[in-house]
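Predict structure. Input: FUSC family protein, 743 residues.
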Amino acid sequence: MRAAVRRSGTRLRDHLAASDPGLLRLTAGLRTVGAIALTLAVLAPTGADITHLVAGAMTSMAATFAVRERKRGAQAVTLALGLPVALASVSAGALLSERVVVGDVFAVLLIFCAVYGRRFGDRGMTLGLIGFQMYFVSLFVGAKPDQLPALWAVTTVGFACSALVRFAVVPVTPTGLLARLRQAFRVRLARLVSAHIALLDAGPDEVDKALEEVRERTARLHETALMIQSRLEEGTPDEPTARLVQRRVADAEIAAERLGLLLLSARSAERADTLTLHLPGAPAPEVGRLPGPEEATALLRRDLRALRALVLRRDTSGAGVAQVRNRLLGYRDEENLPAASAPVRDVFRGIGEAARAVMGLRIALDGPQDESDDSPATARSREELDAEDAAIDAEEAEEAEEPKGLQRPTTRAAVQVAVGSTLAIVGGELLSTDRWYWAVLTCWIVFINTASTGEILVKGYRRLLGTVFGVVAGILLAGLVGGNTVLAFVLVLVLIFAMFYTAPLSYTLMSFFVTAMLGLLYTLLHTYSWEVLVLRVEETALGAVCGVVAAALVLPVRTDRRTNELLVTVLERLSDVTEAAVTQLSGGPADELLDKARELDQALGDLRSATKPLTHPVTPLRARRTTARYVVALLETCAYHARSLAATAELLPTHPSIAADPRLRGAAGRTVRNIRTIAARVADDEVTAPVETGPSIASLLADDDASRYGRITGRVLRHLERLDEAVVGLARPLDVPVKAPEH
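Output follows.
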């Protein structure tokens, strides 16, 4: 019975780790709800009225979600600075409540300063959020000057409760968070292997669905790898440890992605196109039964399950585990490969490489392992890992030059939101002299974490949609609650938790829960009515329209311009990674390849977010949506091959089967030139240089004296050729001319 309970608990933890990496959403929800509940528990016995209870709850919520620093000391300083900002903002809201013109001017200035503060980093953004949100709280509860002493006390209690919950009740340390992210990576890696097993067993009618599952879980694994990368600096004791974890995570990610490609290739008549793993909705290649004897398929299924068990297993001691690990690692040295076709044998080799990556990841995360039962193949893998770890050396990254003046994103956004808020105030006052701030709040929110007119339009649409459905829910909940204050506050806490838990997943859902919660707060304040909720929809629509108008007319950043700028950045990062990897594979000096690869991943993530307005289901430009998806998928393919080249190049000093070949620099030079040509064409329409095509890279290296340079593995050639093909394919949708080779 106890064993069953433990297994159920383990499965539940693994499910939470996979669905919420690092438990970031769960922590955010628990912290916010805990801070609000503690604030209410402190204020209620003092005889505070409903207005002060609501103000205290909203204050603790703002103080909790606004803080963005990762280090606990920095969080404490920001909260301490945030309290006087909150007191000043609440006071201004109360003192200016009866002075319409002055109050409106102050609101616009406050919004400008709050958005402009983003240029000063996380602390500047936090203080700006607190200042604006607390001004909004004072308007929401109808604060008057004679109520200020009580509101100051309530605000102080809210901040104190927020700090207590953050640092004592639901503490999050950088090392603890990184540990949870690492566990999430393991679970998502295991789920990707499960998807590989499903792809192996899928019938002809099930392959597309199985491939979509592989594609989705590959993307989620990559997402978790990037989250780990962003937390390494705070969560590890020193730079070498951070770089070790970074390398091992990258190795495991690349090995898992390559395993999926090898499996797909083994099931199809020809080698699978890498793009298949990165283009949403792309059909699977025509597949049949796995070639070779049925025994090989059964062994492959067994070894994939063994690989999944190695990923998830917490205790790696014992002869049984060592025997499985030794068998899988033996495939790297061609040991015990079954009698099967070449593509199927490649899958077994891929399992061996994945097992090596898993062992390296476990050593990096959990420390030295028991080596008493190692086979010679396992011992060689450990020696390779130790040699790679010893070669780690950290270098400082260069600071990028930032734009100045109105070209600086924070300055431009501050001007835009100030203009939009002015329009929202004017329109909001015409709709309601008491609730005009809803329009301003919406205008403010649609500018947060957006950078183009298209992004603002999509965000405004989603907020309006969530608000409409939230109004319906608010009506139903208000009827359910009636005059029961305790039940209303309990439901408010539930909705707030749901709001924070779903916020990273769906902005529409978050807006739905916010609006439903506000309906309950209006009920508590005895200001609830059908007219108030309808007015909220009208003010929300007005604020969204004002935000879009301001973004489109004031210092506009068109979606095309934004995506082009990010596309150029991605291409520049891609050329940097490719050139550095090829240089090292050609015998040149070592470079910080994994850092460059992660910079490429970050740039590609920014581009993916910026293209969402173009790929949104409601966009009327269907052809443009298809092109955007295709371009991003091709870039994902390019990034995969560039990451793989970078990882292979870093193995060069220690891996016995990889040797430098000076010919690579010339053979791959065309690919690097083509990437830069496309970047120049996207950045400047006047550029007319074409993309060059020619003989395959493999044919350029096929000469009689290849042995004098050592062995260049087939893996390196495959990555270079696929990267070259993907870059040429990228030229066509971007209208870059392609020059055929001259005969």
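DSSP finds 27 helices and two strands in the chain.
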